[in-house]
Amino acid sequence: MEKGKNQKMMALSLKGLPQQIQNPIDQIQTRYKHLENGFKLWLSKQSIAVEAAVVTTTSAAQGAAIGAFMGTLTGDTPAAFAPPPNAALNPQAMASLKQAQALAGGPLIQARNFAVMTGVNAGITCVLKRLRGKEDVQSSMAAAFGSGALFSLVSGVGGPNQATNALTSGLFFALVQGGLFQIGQKFSQPPAEDTHYAKTRNMLNNLGLQNYEKNFKKGLLSDNTLPLLNDSALRDVKIPPGPRLLILDHIQREHDLREKHGSRR
């Protein structure tokens, strides 16, 4: 008897504990989000030079960490591109080998390469966003151009003609980034069909019936068909009687309201 009483008291005490204590992971996530928002707010109040320096440094550090990890996976790869001892290679072949070694270096080389790419890209993006007030494909391509050009100079991928190869690398990075930006914009936009169900979605949300939006779409009951809806049409798309009554009542009320406003005019 005493044991059961103690278990009940323990359950009540645990129930009364704050949610943060019961969910330490949620507490950590909330705390991190709060710090992140505070940091962004502080950063937005700084000068453009300070913000660019901070953003560039933090992004470069993140890129260096990623590059170092990638370098541990390809640590033995540069040895495969080493020229044979006493080999007489022409300058073009030697430049190709150096490019391969630069792209497949160890942790330190990859950390440097990734730090340059991510840091420069983030810094230029930050400056352009402050100056232009927006982040679009032009800003994205400009940041990628600077990132690619500096990466070419630092890593030595371009061979002896550094200026030309920096320009070529910058243009390549810019074109790739521009394409990725446009693809991302396309997929981030809502599907075209959703625009035909805006009023329907709003009505269902107001009635608490948002789960039935898929029924409307399967039956092609778009916004244009709302004034024509009847019980038979809603039954055909497998909407239960209760929700059907609410939907029809809502449509009738909207119709009566429009007629009332029209008569006043």
Task: Set out the fold topology.
Layout: H1 2-15, H2 19-22, H3 24-44, H4 48-73, H5 77-80, H6 91-103, H7 107-132, H8 137-155, H9 162-188, H10 198-207, H11 213-218, H12 231-236, H13 241-264
Structural features:
mainly alpha; 265 residues
Fold and architecture overview:
It is a single chain. With 265 residues, the chain is an all-alpha fold. Helix content is 75%, strand content 0%. It has helices spanning 2-15, 19-22, 24-44, 48-73, 77-80, 91-103, 107-132, 137-155, 162-188, 198-207, 213-218, 231-236, 241-264. Helix 7 runs antiparallel to helix 8 (137-155). The longest helix has 27 residues, at 162-188. The relative contact order is 0.06. Mean pLDDT is 78; it is low at 12-21.
